[in-house]
Inverse folding.
């Protein structure tokens, strides 16, 4: 490689002249490029004048010029060195140097004309800020430039307040040339770099669309011309397309017209959970063995099913499988119960650790009243109870678990979950899904179950893991027990927090922050009341800590009622101040709905404060559990009829979202933030959100995205049809004084969206 080519490559890399660099997760490459272009341009283009100025100052014995010039150049060099790792420090430093240079011009020149160059220099700061730091910093600099405007209008010189420095002979020449270079070379180069980045981004999008179109055509060609039989089904499992091979194969044993029929019409054996199965079919006069493979395609709303004739292979496998099963069944199977035994489970976990991502949780379910069942109904009924429990667990856990008999009274299953919060949620669901009684051979048998959980990591003995789970299930009388070394200490800490929280409710230690809910153009449509706790003993406590403890200790009912009363009084105060009130959302838990007098308390608070019910929005979390679902539905329906707005919060993370959506009078759905984060780059999350928006559109339910932290996410969501938002991209939670100022304005400040986004919002 020639010297010139190598130099070009080095310059391209140093100045990030290509947009395929990602030096930082938060700073685009072109911004760093623009910063370095400006810094290097200033250093190179102005160095000649500064050196000449410094030499002239020595001759004219004007000492102050040299340290000033050196200070600025050292600062510029330092900012250039840290421009990538500390982009924002360097950018703000450049702006600060511009301001400092302006002040120096004005303060060191006793010549009125030259001193006015300082304020003129500050006029460049909005351009620099817009390019490097975005529109907020640019707007701030525009506002800041009111000061130099005032100085220029009034011809104010800071040199009047200090002992004026003598002026160099060529100062007028130097200052004007530096000002010319900065405004006509440095800044235009940076702007040109930003423009090139925008053009490259547009070209990338065009090429990507062309590539996707080509891929779609290629997929269609491969499907149509394939020699292997293939069919495509939609989300309703109806056949929408079949290639010629599939039509030829299936019409030999089925009616000719099967397009549009349900898949069960042809292959009832293939369920939604099956990725691959083998079925037997009579083709003409022969029995064929067909292997069906299902694979999600495109947007996962369609499934490609491949059909292959594996008759010869299946015959061989069947012979071998029969022989193998006969040998293994005796060692690894409990014939009495009809389930795999403990040895099978140990082998399974030891040889298939990769299946569980090298870390698993072992759960032991014990029948507490096993001896009672044996004594009352006979020893033959306990194995049947265990078998029934195994069936229910398999239906509930699906492919996430393997189930086996641990002893005469216990079942064990392993799942690939080790996160404390997730495993606790899963165990609560397991217990909730287990029946309290079973009808076996006409006898109603009461079943009392407990769960013990133990977790392990790589290379830990599986047998010890099972023993730990069995030990946990017998350790105490709790329904769910966890084998953990630090469980006792955490129990003490939780008890202490529970006691302090109970005192906090009486000592007025709680307060409320509010986070706005907005449309895409910044219009405020509501807010969420967020409970906060600042303990004088242990300091600030996160809601993620004290809310779960409150739910466990039964304090969540008092917390909710405190919040309801506080919010109602706050709304009353805002109305008395003449503010235009927007609805305030309050989180409601499952235990709240289980309280018979909850709706009465809520209505009394609204009536006492003389506020309209539609100013209160009740957010029901998708995962909220109630003891009596029909009563909970009736309570929510009554509150909705009274005028309260009903919102389903954290939609998509639980298992009962659709049930709540259809049974409760939901007016708004909040999409959980886990589907919003990086939605512009995460195709799966984007598909989930699109499906939720489409479903809510059918039900005529408003959709709000929570946890929005980037305006690029807002762009993407608007394109999907979501028009309401909540998150740091617009505003963080704030106190009642700050939120009152926003209510008075009815719109978030400094939210100016592109015209295309405005049109999307309006439509």
């Amino acid at each position: 490689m020639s010297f010139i080519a190598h130099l070009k490559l080095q310059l391209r890399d140093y100045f990030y002249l290509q947009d395929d660099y990602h030096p930082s997760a938060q700073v685009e490459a072109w911004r760093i490029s623009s910063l370095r272009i400006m810094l290097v341009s200033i250093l190179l283009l102005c160095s000649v004048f500064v050196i000449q100025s410094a030499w002239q100052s020595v001759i004219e014995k004007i000492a102050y010029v040299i340290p000033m010039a050196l200070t600025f150049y050292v600062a510029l060099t330092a900012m250039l060195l840290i421009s990538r790792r500390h982009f924002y420090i360097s950018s703000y430093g450049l702006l600060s140097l511009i301001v400092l240079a302006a002040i120096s011009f004005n303060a060191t020149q006793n010549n009125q004309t030259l001193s006015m160059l300082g304020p003129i220099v500050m006029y460049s700061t909005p351009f620099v800020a817009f390019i490097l730091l975005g529109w907020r910093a640019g707007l701030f600099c525009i506002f800041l430039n009111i000061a130099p405007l005032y100085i220029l209008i009034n011809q104010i010189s800071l040199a009047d307040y200090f002992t004026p420095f003598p002026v160099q002979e060529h100062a007028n020449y130097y200052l004007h040339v530096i000002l010319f270079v900065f405004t006509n070379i440095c800044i235009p180069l940076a702007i040109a770099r930003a423009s090139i980045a925008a053009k490259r981004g547009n070209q990338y999008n065009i090429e990507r669309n062309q590539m996707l179109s080509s891929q779609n055509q290629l997929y269609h060609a491969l499907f149509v011309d394939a020699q292997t039989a293939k069919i495509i089904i939609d989300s309703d499992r109806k056949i929408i397309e079949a290639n010629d091979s599939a039509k030829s194969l299936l019409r030999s044993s089925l009616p000719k017209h099967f397009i549009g029929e349900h898949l069960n019409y042809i292959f009832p054996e293939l369920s939604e959970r099956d990725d691959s199965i083998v079925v037997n079919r009579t083709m003409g006069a022969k029995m064929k063995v067909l292997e069906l493979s299902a694979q999600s395609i495109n947007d996962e709303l369609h499934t490609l099913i491949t059909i292959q004739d594996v008759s010869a292979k299946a015959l061989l496998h069947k012979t071998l499988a029969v022989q193998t099963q006969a040998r293994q069944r005796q060692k690894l199977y409990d014939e009495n119960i009809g389930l795999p035994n403990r040895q099978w489970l140990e082998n399974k976990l030891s040889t298939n650790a990769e299946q569980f991502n090298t870390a698993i949780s072992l759960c032991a379910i014990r029948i507490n009243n096993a001896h009672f069942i044996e004594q009352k109904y006979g020893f033959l009924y306990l194995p049947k109870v265990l078998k029934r429990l195994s069936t229910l667990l398999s239906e509930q856990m699906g492919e996430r678990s393997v189930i086996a008999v641990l002893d005469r009274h216990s079942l064990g299953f392993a799942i690939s979950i080790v996160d404390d919060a997730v495993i606790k949620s899963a165990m609560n669901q397991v217990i909730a899904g287990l029946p309290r009684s079973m009808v076996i051979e006409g006898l109603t048998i009461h079943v009392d179950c407990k769960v013990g959980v133990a977790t392990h990591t790589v290379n830990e003995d599986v047998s010890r893991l099972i023993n730990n789970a069995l030990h946990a299930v017998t350790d105490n009388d709790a329904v769910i027990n966890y084998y953990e070394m630090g469980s006792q200490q955490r129990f003490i800490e939780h008890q202490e927090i529970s006691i302090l929280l109970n005192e906090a409710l009486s000592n007025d230690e709680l307060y409320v922050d509010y986070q706005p809910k907005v449309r895409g153009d910044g219009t405020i449509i509501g807010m969420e009341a967020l409970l906060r706790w600042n303990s004088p003993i242990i300091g600030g406590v996160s809601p993620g800590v004290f809310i779960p403890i409150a739910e466990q200790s039964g304090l969540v009912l008092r917390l909710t009622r405190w919040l309801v009363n506080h919010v109602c009084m706050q709304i009353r105060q805002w109305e008395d101040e003449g503010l235009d009130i927007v609805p305030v959302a309050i989180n409601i838990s499952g235990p709240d709905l289980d309280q018979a007098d909850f709706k009465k308390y809520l209505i009394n608070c609204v009536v006492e404060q003389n506020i309209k019910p539609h100013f209160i929005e009740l957010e029901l979390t998708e995962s909220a559990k109630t003891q009596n679902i029909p009563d909970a539905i009736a309570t929510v329906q009554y509150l909705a009829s009274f005028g309260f707005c009903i919102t389903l919060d954290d939609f998509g993370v639980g298992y009962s979202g659709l049930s709540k959506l259809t049974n409760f009078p939901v007016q708004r759905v909040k999409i959980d933030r886990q589907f919003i984060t990086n939605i512009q780059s995460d195709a799966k999350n984007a598909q989930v959100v699109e499906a939720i928006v489409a479903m809510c559109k059918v039900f005529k339910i408003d959709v709000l995205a929570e946890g929005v932290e980037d305006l690029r996410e807002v762009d993407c969501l608007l394109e999907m049809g979501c028009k309401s938002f909540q998150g740091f991209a617009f505003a963080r939670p704030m106190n009642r004084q700050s939120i009152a100022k926003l209510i008075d304005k009815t719109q978030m400040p400094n939210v100016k969206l592109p015209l295309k986004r405005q049109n999307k919002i309006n439509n």
Notes: The first strand starts at residue 229 and ends at 233.
